[in-house]
Amino acid sequence: MQLDLRVDRSSPVPLYFQLSQQLEAAIEHGTLTPGSLLGNEIELASRLGLSRPTVRQAIQSLVDKGLLVRRRGVGTQVVHSQVKRPLELSSLYDDLEAAGQSPATKVLVNTVVPASTEVAAALGVPEGGDVHRVERLRLARGEPMAYLCNHLPPGLLDLDTVQLEATGLYRLLRSAGITLHSARQSIGARAATAAEAERLTEAEGAPLLTMRRTTFDDTGRAVEFGDHTYRPSRYSFEFQLLVRP
Q: How far apart are the first and last CA of the chain?
């Protein structure tokens, strides 16, 4: 596929980075779809007037991000786009759908359990009291993207497994008349346990992104506590930072 690629030699931005950003944008916007061949490094370097090491460095940066893969006898191929999630009160299902990633869900656990100290504190319920626990594997384009563990207060809504596999949790909350208002969230990273690695098809000890969130409705009531892990090669969080006036 002939892409409209340009580099600005007067810019302080390194040429390899300019090229890698344009290729990444083409992948994210679907111009380069999964399975597409990127083309020959020599031809690309010649067309843009760049050196082969510069083009190689640009491509390698996207290989390192997991967006491209080099296949012997085939060439450089697009694997998938990485979902960039804005830090706002939205569900992973909605974000994946908005990114054109064809989300799917596999419910692993859907049951009632005694609230742990941490869950009780987050939801404002008695420790040891009943809470609803849902564990799901979220997939995009058939690939595991994230493992989601959520706890909800008892009696909040009927969590049907079929519905949980058909749509997102936040959509079910809203359809039950619950108005989501705000959330308290923390983001981190840690090494994958053996169980997490198996779920997400990563190597044991591989880095994973983590996110914990307590969500509140418009009355200030905690309606869910989520503890999620994400594959960083497939997913990232995006921040917008503003200067205080």
A: 46
E strand or H helix at 166: helix 161-166
Q: CA-CA distance, 137 to 66, in Å (whole number)?
A: 20
Model confidence pLDDT, tens digit, residues 123-171: 989 999 999 999 999 888 788 888 999 999 998 888 899 999 988 898 8
Token pair, residue 82, equals: 């990485």
CB of 105 closer than 8 Å to CB of 93: yes
Is the CB of residue 114 less than 8 Å from the CB of residue 128? yes
User: Which segments of the chain have a pLDDT < 70?
Assistant: 1-2, 80-102, 235-245
pTM score, two decimals? 0.62
Point out which residues pair with 75 in neighbouring strands. Answer: 71
CA distances from 49 to 59, 127, 179, 188, 203 (A): 16, 66, 55, 41, 40
Whole-number Å distance between alpha carbons of 213 and 148? 11
In one-letter notation, the amino acid at residue 45 is: A
Chain centroid, CA 100 distance in Å: 13
Encoded tokens for 193? 């346990």
- pLDDT (tens digit, 9 = 90+) per residue, 208-222? 989 898 989 888 889
Q: State the alpha helices, DSSP H only, in 1-98.
A: 15-28, 41-48, 52-64, 92-98
Q: How far apart are CA 205 and CA 196, in angstroms?
A: 9
Tokens standing for residue 171: 């959509």
Which of helix, strand or coil describes residue 219? coil
- At residue 132, the pLDDT reads 95
Query: 224 near 152, Cβ under 8 Å?
Result: yes
Tell me what pLDDT residue 30 has. 72
